[in-house]
Amino acid sequence: MGWRRKRSNLPGRAHIGKKITMAVPTYEEIMPPTLAVLNKCDKYVSSKELDAETIEVFDLNAEERAERTPSGNSNLYKNNANWARQYLKHAGLIDFGYQHGGKRGTYRATDAGRAFQAEHPEGFGVEDLLVFPTFSEYYGGKHGGGDRQPMPKSTEESEQLTPPEIMEKAAKEMRDVLAEDLLQVIASMDDYDFEFLVAKLLVAMGYGQSLDEPTTVTPKSNDGGIDGIVKEDRLGFDNVYFQAKRWDKDTTVTKPEVQKFSGALNGQHANKGLFITTARFSEGARKYVETVSGQRIALVDGVTLAHLMIDYNVGVTEEKTYVIKSVDTDFFEG
Asked: Does domain 181-311 fall into CATH 3.40.50.2000?
């Protein structure tokens, strides 16, 4: 396979003109070697065989080959390779076996694909496929090419996202906005109400689930630096003491504040504590809890707090649920 090149000088990467820092190739980068392999074979090839051939081009290690998509639902390389084949198919450069009496889950280069490969020996990208009306229409441009819509851009010009990746990116952005909104709502709460909010969150996370009183919030005064107590397990064999501080999100909680909490734990003869705040922790505070002797102290800052509330449905409600499905190629190759 004389066209094979490793890492930064791959077909499909050369035309980008910049160093690739992403380990697992995008679908756009997988398209050229996919077409090259199919041109070389000149027969219908299964997705497993095709993935095995193309993945070698990118010199991925075992960890990279096993990497999952952000959602964790599928293998990242196989997901990107599937979308590479979809794009090549819509451009008319490859066809699927089942469309021409062949086996499902197999692929072959078309005459147009062979000609296109010969015209682009150094690689190609999505922009090059827009010359095909079927692909231009599928991708979102108008038939005919002259009035087609502009290519989507991202912070990395070489990064072209698949529809699931676009949804995942949008979901993350919406989640981050929701977390920010939660912190703004919490900022208007009473300190004592915030302590009860933390207690509710800990219960939602599974602490003391089967106990009649899984958590205790201490009185406003004379709490000795402890805002509440939560049972660590369902049987209540151990307690976790927590301190909940509703401070401005731009405030930095420093080492002395965490040391005071550690002292409060000592006063309760306790060795497990949770310091949870709407603010953020300094590096010194985080290093301190890693080295303090005889105690285990967990630090939860404002951003982490908001995301835990989202994960455990505390203070949020679901509006819509979207399920993304993909073709199970193993099913059709069985």
From this structure: no
- Residue 277 per-residue DSSP state: E
Q: Which long-range contacts (CB under 8 A, 24 or more apart) does 219-223 make?
A: 220/192
Angle at CA of residue 265, ends 260 and 266, nearest 5° = 95
* Residue in this structure with the two tokens 């380990």, named with its chain if needed: 23
pLDDT in tens, 3-34: 343 333 333 333 323 333 347 899 999 999 99
- The C-alpha atoms of residue 264 and residue 229 are separated, in whole angstroms, by 13
Which amino acid, one-letter code, is at 146? G
332 CB-side CA count, 13 A: 16
Q: Which two tokens stand for residue 155?
A: 């912070």
228 pairs with which residues across the strands?
Answer: 217, 242
How far apart CA 93 and CA 109 sit, in angstroms, is 6
Strands 239-245 and 215-217 turn out to be: unpaired
Dump pLDDT digits (tens) for 271-311. Answer: 999 999 999 999 999 999 999 989 999 999 999 999 999 99
Task: Please give the structure tokens belonging to residue 34.
Answer: 């996919």
CA atoms of 85 and 96, how far apart (whole Å): 9
**Would you give the DSSP letter of residue 230?**
E
In angstroms, rounded to a whole number, what is the distance separating the alpha carbons of residues 243 and 104? 59
- How many other C-beta atoms can be found within 10 angstroms of the C-beta atom of residue 135? 20
Note the pTM of the prediction, 2 decimals: 0.58
Give the helix ranges, DSSP H, for the chain.
27-41, 47-57, 62-65, 76-90, 111-119, 126-129, 133-139, 163-187, 191-204, 255-267, 283-291, 302-311, 329-333
Q: Any idea where the domains of the chain sit in the sequence?
A: 7-159, 181-311
Comparing CA positions, the residue from 309, 260, 259, 251 lying closest to residue 279 is 251
- The span from the first CA to the last CA of the chain, in angstroms, equals 29
Q: Would the CA dihedral through 269, 274, 279, 186 be positive or negative?
A: negative
**Are 75 and 329 a contacting pair, CB within 8 Å?**
no
Residue 241 φ/ψ, nearest 5 degrees = -95, 135
The three-state secondary structure class of 99 is helix
